[in-house]
Amino acid sequence: MPRAGHRMLRSARNGRRYARGETTEGFVVHVPDQVDVRAIRRKLGLSQPDFAARFGFSLSAVREWEHGRRRPEQAARMLLLVIEHNPDAVREALAGGSAAA
User: Fold this and answer.
1) Considering the entire predicted model, what is its pTM?
2) pLDDT per residue over 1-49, tens digit each?
3) Residue 24 structural domain
4) Does 1 lie in the same domain as 20?
5) Do residue 81 and residue 42 come from a single domain?
6) 31: number of CA atoms within 13 Å, CB side?
């Protein structure tokens, strides 16, 4: 088999292992440079204070992000993306307390 064929098979196997949750090796998470915090907050119908309180952000950070004076750090952008796609999961995780107790 040609080298390209071996690489394709290896890639398919790695993809299958990743899909099964057996590995994350070789997979890169893409975090966008910009996140529209205002749009996410408005989609949820929350005021700035309510959004900040519900998801653990400081009110000043939310205001600064929305006015473009600051940009959320990578971890905050990741959390904001999860909030955008599944806010209930984030609320549930934050309300549940420590699972290690």
Assistant:
1) 0.68
2) 677 777 778 878 877 776 777 776 766 677 899 999 999 999 999 999 9
3) 1-28
4) yes
5) yes
6) 12
